[in-house]
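ok trying this again, last paste got cut off
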Amino acid sequence: MKRISIKLYIAALMMFSMGCSKDYLDRTPSDTVQEEELLSTVEGQEIALNGLFRYMYLAGGHDSFGEMAINLALDLRCDDMALHALGHNWFANDYGIEFSRAETHSRPANIWGYYYQLIFQANQIINTIDGVEADEHEKNYVKGQALAIRAYAHHRLVQVFQQTYVGNESAAGIPIKLTAEIQNLPRSPLSEVYTQIEEDYLEALDLLEEKYENEGEDDEEVISVRRKHPSHLGYEAVAGLLSRMYMVKNEWDAAFEYADLAIEKATEKGYYLTPGGSYSSGFNDSYSAGWLWGLTINSAQSTVYASFFSHIDPFAGGYATLGSMKKISNELYGKMSGNDIRRNVYADRDYELDAAGNYIWPTLATSKFRLKNSAWEGDYIMLRMAELYLNRAEAAVHIGDESTARNDVNFLLRNRVVNYQDRTLSGDQLMEEILTQRRIELWGEGHRYFDMMRNKEDLSRDKTHDPGMARIMELPAGDPQWIMQLPQSELDANPAISGADQNPLK
């Protein structure tokens, strides 16, 4: 994997800092900073850290703009999101599944390169920060962020390039990268990849935990570093990501424990479930009390047409407006009751958007995600409180705590359905309700592919999907077409991975 210039960090810093409410970053000009100098101070390490987060929403093309491009590509491979029309053909191959997963296609190369770039940047911090002379709490803050991102990137990668963990523990996963040096590494077994992911998350959690002085006295003071920006990860967000990972492993006690911990710590800090009245506000503000982690993007940082909002906001004047609206499946839409406020972010009929009738908002098309303004400002969602309640509810059923599961799903629905009356479901019906509400609540946020994989669900697309565009309408769980082939560029460059190590095409 190629190393990037340190100037990318500086450029990323300059863009990132424009969106910050506090001027806490050193804006040293890029032509005066060398890599060694940058990473020799905790301030420089934080510059590198901010470059890492900035990279998560940089655009490399009109269908490759970091996290949300990957989320959109994966959601379109599933059942709950449909394309209205091909438009300019962006994401068309992702929707059709088969072509977009081949070793020569740009999508596997984009996902592989993007996450290993995140890992590389994280490793530059992790491998050097212990030697920096600085306040220990400041160092812990930066290192904890980098470890969490390294875990996050490895986890996302391994779920795209291999079948789910349970039942495939010894299957070939991905190379585990723990240094910033160029290395030719083989594919490690899933069990080893997940062990490393778990270790990184747990160490990050320890480093980001709030520490106190004068413990046990009335004048306790927090001496650890609080989260400095919504694009950064807090303790509660890392706990939430851990719950995701344990759900994939079906380690339900741990999944419950960390979802519960995340909810507890987030609630203490003033986070809360996004109220029903805000569900139609556009999902575009990382400062929302319902978001534990988001990527903040202002007008100077916006990638305009090469952005998530361009492809999903029908009112933005981007690709969605030009015809490639994203629609909820009729099957899932029908699972919402008539007084569910979440129905309001989907068209119940065809609408004209302007007096001239130039733009159409078609039936079932979404307006869940909308830009804040005409300057193309809009933040990317990464982790919400709603997911934590759904994680805990699902795990609770598996460990036999149906009372907690019912409380969590009823709490969510009291905030989503007008005049909702609590239900006393149990067993399979309770689990079905939790999984259904997960599909509805988190629609378009990049969860459906990962949920279908870990639950080993068959793909069955309803008539909302046009077979001419979708191409594949049915796909059994475990089929090779669920996962992507390793990119040809990796096979060409890495002698530790041969053609025999490649995922099957079909």
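PB: full thing came through this time. Confidence is low (pLDDT under 50) at residues 1-33.
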